[in-house]
Amino acid sequence: MAGIEQRSIGIVMNGVTGRMGYRQHLLRSILAIREQGGLRLADGAVLLPEPILVGRSEAKLASIAKDHGIDRWTTDLDEALALPDTEIYFDAQVTSARADAIKKAIAAGKHIYTEKPTAEHTEGALELARLARDAGVKAGVVQDKLFLPGLRKLKRLVDGGFFGQILSVRGEFGYWVFEGDWQEAQRPSWNYRAEDGGGIIVDMFCHWRYVLEEIFAGVRTVQCQGATHIPRRVDEAGRSYPATADDAAYGIFELDGGIIAQVNSSWATRVFRDELVEFQVDGTEGSAVAGLRRCRVQHRAMTPKPVWNPDLPAGEDFRAQWQEVPDNEQFDNGFKVQWELFLKHVVLGEEFPWDFLAGARGVQLAELGLRAWRAGRRLDVPDLKL
Ligand SMILES: NC(=O)c1ccc[n+]([C@@H]2O[C@H](COP(=O)([O-])OP(=O)(O)OC[C@H]3O[C@@H](n4cnc5c(N)ncnc54)[C@H](O)[C@@H]3O)[C@@H](O)[C@H]2O)c1
């Protein structure tokens, strides 16, 4: 690339031995950006991210570094943060370890990009937002679902006025997570222990906040019924442990404009859907069903008129009466797309709306969901300010 200016940016990546840190952030984002030759910036330069891996296990870090030709890794976060050529700290650790590490990185003057939830409680999430603001560092939080092809197409329908007045949103997220006894669990055991920052409400309500607000409208109230359907599980070491956290949540949210959103989240359900998450949106002019990748619609004019008659077998193939929304664009990995936007935000000051206040709003909805469940009440969702 003769004549093209190349810039490097050092990124301290903590938690890359974990599921998300390794697969989505290291492999599918940072290394993918390197493999494509870097990130082309608006000023013509090319930005090359330089990861410095941080974690607890030397052996795991060394093995990842070797597999991917990465020369810098350490088990000492302070050492990594002291490196002069690192500008960004990224965190994909377990949720409970996040806030302390981010505080250190802010104190070291790094820009921060992090997995959600930013903290376990709203107050902690707001504190991080204030610290980042006061230190003058840029801060971003992963909101990957916004970049899913299915939800991008859904947003396109909303923006294009397809629905008329939107009446309701019904979300179904989940799959069976094995208990760990006769088949290994496909999620880490801390997810099922409240004392370790686990629980599906903390995990998923952060996502539902930004999905509902960015695609539809602000969330005004929350009702939530949680459950721990599977009371005992078996951990990575084969030990049986009590599941102290919720593994399913049945939430109802009132949105601005009177839209009712109902979202089920469960690690104790078997999938009879086309995708692991699906949202059905019903509006006066039409309806849509969007998943991770697909989005299908039924317009008002194409709506069949079923008549309730249990004496007869279903005479129509209801699924066949929907139309596929075309892609009309190329979709890249959502984590990578958001990383690229954050990198441009850091080096060129380009817009990046998913900051730590947005992160705190996600944590707030999770916390209110837990409180609403415990109290058996519908709770208002007040505006959050720094
Ligand atoms: N954006 C998303 O869709 C999404 C999906 C799943 C998880 N997450 C978030 O990503 C984070 C990591 O989740 P994961 O599923 O990759 O978890 P994981 O258990 O696979 O990885 C956790 C990482 O944290 C490190 N760690 C640091 N301190 C630890 C401790 N005390 N105990 C255990 N591990 C510790 C581990 O070494 C590992 O690298 C969580 O905050 C989670 O909420 C986000």
C-alpha Rg, in Å? 22 Å
Q: Structural class, from secondary structure content?
A: alpha/beta
Oligomer: single chain
Strand content: 15-25%
By CATH, the superfamily of the largest domain comes out as: Dihydrodipicolinate Reductase, domain 2
Shape: globular
Mean pLDDT: 97
Kindly state the percentage of residues in helix: 25-40%
Number of domains: 2
Named at the architecture level, the CATH assignment of the largest domain is 2-Layer Sandwich
Q: How many strand elements?
A: 18
Biggest sheet architecture: 9 strands, mixed
* Contiguous helical run count: 9
Which descriptors apply to this entry?
386 residues, alpha/beta, Rossmann fold, Dihydrodipicolinate Reductase, domain 2, 2 domains, 7-stranded mixed beta sheet, 9 helices, globular, binds nicotinamide-adenine-dinucleotide
Brief overview:
The chain is of the alpha/beta class and 386 residues long. It has helices at residues 19-35, 58-68, 77-82, 98-107, 122-135, 149-159, 200-215, 334-348, 356-375, and strands at 6-14, 39-40, 46-54, 73-74, 86-91, 111-114, 139-141, 166-174, 219-227, 232-234, 240-242, 248-255, 260-266, 277-283, 286-290, 295-299, 323-324, 379-380. It has two domains: 6-144 and 334-363, 3-Layer(aba) Sandwich (Rossmann fold), CATH 3.40.50.720; 146-329, Dihydrodipicolinate Reductase, domain 2, CATH 3.30.360.
